[in-house]
Amino acid sequence: MRAVWQSYIFKRVRIHSCLTILMLWLSISTNAQTAADFSINKKEGCIPLSGVNFTDQSSGGTVTRRDWNLGNGTIINAGAATVGTNYLTDGKFYVTLTVTFSNGDIRTKRDSVIVHPRPVADFAADEETGCSPHRVNFTSLATTQTGTITEWLWDFGAGGSTQTDPSFTYNVNGEYNVSLIVKNNWNCESEAAIRLRYIKVYPKVNASFTIPDNADCAAPFTVNFVNTTTGGGVITYEWDFGDGSPKSTDANPTHTYTSTGAFTVTLTARNGSNCVSTYTTPSNSRVFVGKPQPAITAPSSVCANTSVNFSGSVTPADFLYSVKWLFPDNGAVQYGQNTSHTFTTPGTYNIAMVAFNYPQCNDTAWHTISVTPGPVAGFSSDKPLGCSTPFTVQFTDQSSPASGLTYDWNFGDGSPHDVNSSPSHTYTSFGAYTVSLTVTDPATGCAATKQLSNAVRIVKPRVDFTYTPPEGCKPLPVKATARLSDIVDPVTDYIWDFGDGTIITTSVDNATHTYTTAGTFNIKLTIVTQQGCTVSSDTKPVTVADICDDDGSGGGGGGGGGAGVMLGKTCADKYTVTFTDTVQDSQPISWDFGDGSPLYTTAPLNPVTHTFPTTAKKYLVTLTRRNTVTNIVSTAQFRAVIIDEKADFIPDIFNICINKTVNLATIGIDSSNINKYTWDFGDGTTPLMIDNKSYFRNYGKYLNGNTSHTYINNGVFHITLTIEDKLGCTHSFQYPVPVTVEGPVVGFEASPLTSCLKDFTVAFQDTSKPNGSTPIVEWTWNFGDGSPAFVTTRDTLLHHNYSNDTYYRFYNITLKIKDAAGCEAQVTRNNHVKSYRPKASFYSNDVLKCGNHTVTLYNNSSAYNATYIWYYGDGTSSTGYNGSRTYTADGEYDISLVVTDENGCRDSLAKEEYIKLVKPKADFIIGDDSKCAPIALQFFDNSDYANTYEWDFGDGGTGSTDKDPAAHIYAAPGFYQVKLKITGVSGCTDETTKTIRVKGPIGNLTVGAATGCIPFTLPMKVTGSNISSYAWDFGDGTPVQPSTESEVAHVYPLAGTYRPNVILTSPEGCPFTLKAPDPVIVDSAFAKYSIDRPIRCNLDRTVQFTNLSTSAFAPRTYKWLFGDNQESTDEAPVHTYNTPGKYDVTLIVFSRYGCSDTISSQPVVIYKQPEVRIFGDKEKCAKAQVDYRADVISEDAITDYTWKIDQSVVSRQDRFDHRFNTAGTYRLSLTVNTQYGCEETAEEPITIRPLPVPAASPKNTTICIGSPVSLQAHDGDRFSWWPNQWMSGANTDHPQVSPQQDMRYYVKVTNQYGCEELDSVDVHVDEKVNLQHSKDVIICKGERTRLSASGNTPDFVWTPALGLNNPNIASPVASPQQTTTYEVTGISHNTCPSETGRIKVTVGEIPTVDLGPDLTVEAGKSVTLQPVLSNDVVYYNWQPATGLSCINCATPRFIADKDITYRLTVRTQYQCEASDAINIKVACGKGAVYIPNAFTPNHDGKNDRFNIRGFGIQKVKSFRIYNRWGQLVFNRENFLPNDSNAGWDGRFNGQIAEGGTYVYITEVICNEGKPLVLKGTVILIR
């Protein structure tokens, strides 16, 4: 009050001073105007807008009176200069000040105050209860009367959000308060909308139960269920006992089963909409009530020794657990639902079936069976095995009794069964067959079966053979051995066909035959079995040569050598050979050694030794021998081959540097004669052996022996090649020129080789040694650190700087040197220079611990081969890779690690206060709490060493687990105990509690009954403390005014849901809103309905009623009164009235909360049926027009007419015309429909007379042109045919026609009823074939020609078919082997006959031509080609024409020049053609090269140049001419021979050379690639 008073005095002083100044001004101015004015301290704000002050600021005179109207009902007359008020409702309030001045002026000023509404916070959640983790989607339902919501502050109890419609997941079980505060764009804040324990999060329910006793063998059976379900919150249960009884919601129900069965019990447990668990009893844990009821299905009588099937069934089916069968005939006990049993002894037996369910309750069923004696089946066969088809087997019955039986044979091959007792059967296919015999005794019906698998096996033998050798020279003995499989019948004969006309039959599996003629022969083996089966093998070839090469190494053909001769050789004299005739019963007569020596006939002749000249290596040897048994003289020839290979080779280089390679190539060695090559490189390395023989055996080709070798040392080395030939003979050759290897020896030294520094320098000194006096001229250093290679030409000490950032790095040093001769050497020393930079590092997972004082330290240092020392900060230390220390007291400890690597380099790491052994301490800080409730209060963790948090905000809900939780909303004022519990390392805990005060009034709202019907009166009352005023808001728009009334009663005139609240204001000005705990529901009911067709026919008396009633809240219930003493409670009933009439309908509706209403608005009217008759003709002919009309009497308006004939609708008018197309009796009906659904039908029979059926025939016939045909019609008294062209008898029922083209004839037939009908026939006229074919033709044997035929047909047949590719087409291809006349028939496909023609195909023979074997001719020699030709050749053509004397003659000549192939093509008079080719190989020799001995370069055009000419020359490689002083006067290389411009023109250095004798040397290359060197002299004549 003092402060206010001082302010007032201050204002009075200021006003007095202003008035003084004003009076002075007025004394000066005589025209002053009075004006009203005032100021407002708060012109705009949110509800409640309190402390709004208005201050008079009128001017122009002295104010004597002030009247205030503040716009909210507050009126202050004669008020003070400053007034104030609180605005408790929103809106725009107009404030008026009326002032009265001392001069009598009255002035008014008007202004306004705007009060913005507070928004109303509200929200909803989609899932209020659930299991953790429980995700909840929140929806803001906040509203604001004006403006928009701009801010949302959510408190979920365990977190918060500022989103409009947030989602939040609750991970901890509990019951959470949820609050929401919103602001609108006026910055007006709502009260807090709070739901206490709104979100309930429980452990997930897990349904389970036990049944202490789940089985009884008799009903009824009472079962107790023990619920063992786990889970949080309110759990609801639903039991399904599996017997169709109502479900139970008890926790531990008891249920009585009254019927037999196995019942599956299911428990469904819920503790939230999304938390459901179901448990169903396993199969063997079901409830079992009663005993199983077994039943047996089996025949009543069976035959002995017959398997009988017993089928068991159990009722109920779930009781089928195990079944036991008891058979008294032999005491057998069998198990299983179904079984089989064979009775061996006749008699009558009672079979028992005992059925058990799972609890072993059981019952027994019995079945009586009579067993009568039965037959025994048996049989045998004469031939169970066969090797060919068809194969006939005789089967013999061995069944008992031996007579009086019937038989059923199944032979297993799909053929029909046989009913004879002992049948024979023929099999037509190979295979293994199961045969069964079923015998039946007709007297008893008993049957028996014997089935024998593989009773008959018919297998085709498989024939193959091996033989050796497959090739060789005559006489060639070959041995063949049979390889047989699938033999089921013994082999009696082996028939060997050796392909040369020799056939040998043996009883053993091998045969030997000697071939005495050359050729390729096919061997085939045929076997004959005991049953006469004959099977042949595929053929295999044997190749026999006339003459073979034999080098004495064992490769000759025939009997151990060429032509049965064995060669003996020695390495000492390779050209001397000893020949031994190895043929049995043979005596040599003479030897011709083929080397020009005389025929050798001097005894002894076996063996014989001969020395061949060295001029050749192959000689044709002829042996004449006499067979000492037959005295027949024969000759044998073979080529004796001399193996005389000489080692020779050439290196590609002779002077090399160290580490270079020499390539070695063999010269002039026939690799096919070599077993192995051995190279000695002369440098002490192991000789290289190349195994040529093995390589050829493995890969099929020979090696040439070439190789290479790398020399790694200096020196002079002689290379030697040693070869071993096929005879084991060796020859060595050392190359006369050695390989010289030169080069320096590289080396260096370095210091230091190790360092602990990041940057260090190493000195490198070259220690290389030169090769003799050849100096080293270049050094290339690579220091291994990625720097460029350093190249120098001076031998000097080098220093290289290294820099290393890693804990170790090893460097590879390379020095490469080169000397003045270009030889190089290089050395690399790996890991030569080493840099060490250890880096200490460690970590621990125990840096913060509570209660456990053992700490482990993990080493992650970077060091090479290091040792470690740990210092633990408490005076102790240890060694080892990792550290570990158990501390005895809490504290903070420094940890150090020292690392020393293998080079002694060291690093250390110290971490101060790294290990903290502490206990957690809970503490928190409270944010700004100066606001009134509702308040969003922030809490901040201030704990030490905390890992997890549990907040309890003291308002009853589960709190947050965040470190600094989202702002927590306190909706109500009061005192709250806030607790924080923390958990630190090692599970240690601590907690603290603080009391907070939320400002505002404290009250409690009680509300009366919350439901009722309009109008509804609601009482409400507030009890509490610290309350100065109450502002009641009933939620229905009633103005809100602050009052002092704590208890009110309000009337709601309209239906709806209302949420009343009251704003309490404390003396300190804090408002607080109390809301009714539940919404107020005011209900209403209004009855209304409609009727589907209230007026209708008596046939349709069932009426659908549609309910249109409404109420504020559903569901609703109804009561219908139908006016015929019938009622219904359905929402939309269907009601059937029994009789026509008028009925009043009443509907009474009841709302959800007990409100009701009644209505009777519309009656139901039911009409009677109409009467219907039909007028019209009742009899007509088919296809005649008939008129019908309706005659109807009805009290209801007719809407539809429906005419039907035999149920088919024909019209919908009251009359109609109709044509009946078919004779017969019809049912005509008329159905009439009225406006309101009445329907009536009248029917009449209609008779329709038949039309005649002409059945004109033939309906569609075909004739060959010019042929007649008779027509026929029926079913009439009169006939008329047209057109009458080509017709006779047009007015009869059978006229005759002979048309020349396709025609259609019509006939009209009239029957006894005078009815007429038309019909027609078609006569098709066929054309003839008109065959055409190709002319006679001439072809050559083996050629083809196409024949052709055409005509009015697509099909042709040619005969004979021999030689035709297809005898059934129009244009076959003919290739007959002899002249043939073919007949072709054009097949007619109509009524006309087929036609035939003939074509002759003349076949000419193919001529024969043989140019003989290929020729090798010396270059320049004249050769005449003389082919062998058949006598029918009339034409010759030689190609190419190159060098031939003629190309169209029989025997042309040519001069041998180069290799060439000539082909001769010949023809006969029929143009039949054949050809043959001959290869001419031209051998080049000195005689083929023509070099003149003189020339005259005088430019007369004759002998002006000295040239090289000749035949068989590929090129002239070099041509050099020297004068008598040895000067080279002419040189040319690589030019063609016979080039007149390529020779020497007689000039030397551009000048004319003097006459005289010159020496020439030339090397020419023959066409076959052979070099030829020629030397001689030539005279230059001037």
Explain what the structure shows.
The protein is mainly β and 1582 residues long. It has 15 domains: 1-30; 33-116, Immunoglobulins (Immunoglobulin-like, Sandwich); 213-220 and 234-289, Immunoglobulin-like (Sandwich), CATH 2.60.40; 293-372, Immunoglobulin-like (Sandwich), CATH 2.60.40.10; 379-458, Immunoglobulin-like; 468-604 and 621-641, Sandwich (Immunoglobulin-like), CATH 2.60.40; 649-742, Immunoglobulins (Immunoglobulin-like, Sandwich), CATH 2.60.40.10; 748-836, Sandwich (Immunoglobulin-like), CATH 2.60.40.10; and more. It is built from two helices and 152 strands. Residues 1-31 and 556-562 have low confidence and may be disordered. Keywords: Membrane, Repeat, Signal, Transmembrane, Transmembrane helix. It is a multi-pass membrane protein. Its main location: membrane. Residues 52-115, 119-185, 218-281, 291-357, 392-448, 489-538, 677-746, 774-808, 838-904, 948-1005, 1023-1069, 1115-1154, 1201-1248 form the PKD domain.
SSE inventory with pairings:
Blueprint: H1 2-28, E1 38-40, E2 44-46, E3 49-56, E4 63-69, E5 75-76, E6 82-87, E7 91-101, E8 106-116, E9 123-125, E10 129-131, E11 134-140, E12 149-155, E13 160-161, E14 167-170, E15 174-184, E16 193-202, E17 209-210, E18 215-216, E19 221-224, E20 226-227, E21 236-240, E22 254-257, E23 261-263, E24 266-272, E25 275-280, E26 287-289, E27 293-297, E28 301-303, E29 307-315, E30 322-327, E31 332-335, E32 338-342, E33 347-356, E34 362-372, E35 379-381, E36 385-386, E37 391-397, E38 406-410, E39 424-427, E40 431-440, E41 447-458, E42 462-468, E43 471-473, E44 476-485, E45 491-497, E46 503-506, E47 510-515, E48 519-529, E49 534-536, E50 540-545, E51 549-550, E52 565-568, E53 576-581, E54 586-592, E55 608-611, E56 618-627, E57 633-641, E58 649-651, E59 655-657, E60 660-666, E61 674-680, E62 688-691, H2 692-699, E63 707-711, E64 715-717, E65 720-725, E66 730-734, E67 739-742, E68 748-751, E69 754-755, E70 759-766, E71 776-782, E72 790-792, E73 798-803, E74 808-819, E75 824-836, E76 842-844, E77 848-849, E78 854-859, ...
Parallel strand pairs: 2-8, 10-16, 18-26, 28-34, 36-41, 43-50, 51-57, 59-67, 69-75, 77-83, 92-100, 103-112, 114-120, 121-127, 129-135, 137-143, 145-152
Antiparallel strand pairs: 1-3, 3-6, 4-5, 4-7, 7-8, 9-11, 11-14, 12-13, 12-15, 15-16, 17-20, 19-22, 21-24, 23-26, 24-25, 27-29, 29-32, 30-31, 30-33, 33-34, 35-37, 37-39, 38-40, 40-41, 42-44, 44-47, 45-46, 45-48, 48-49, 48-50, 52-53, 53-55, 54-56, 56-57, 58-60, 60-63, 61-62, 61-65, 64-67, 65-66, ...
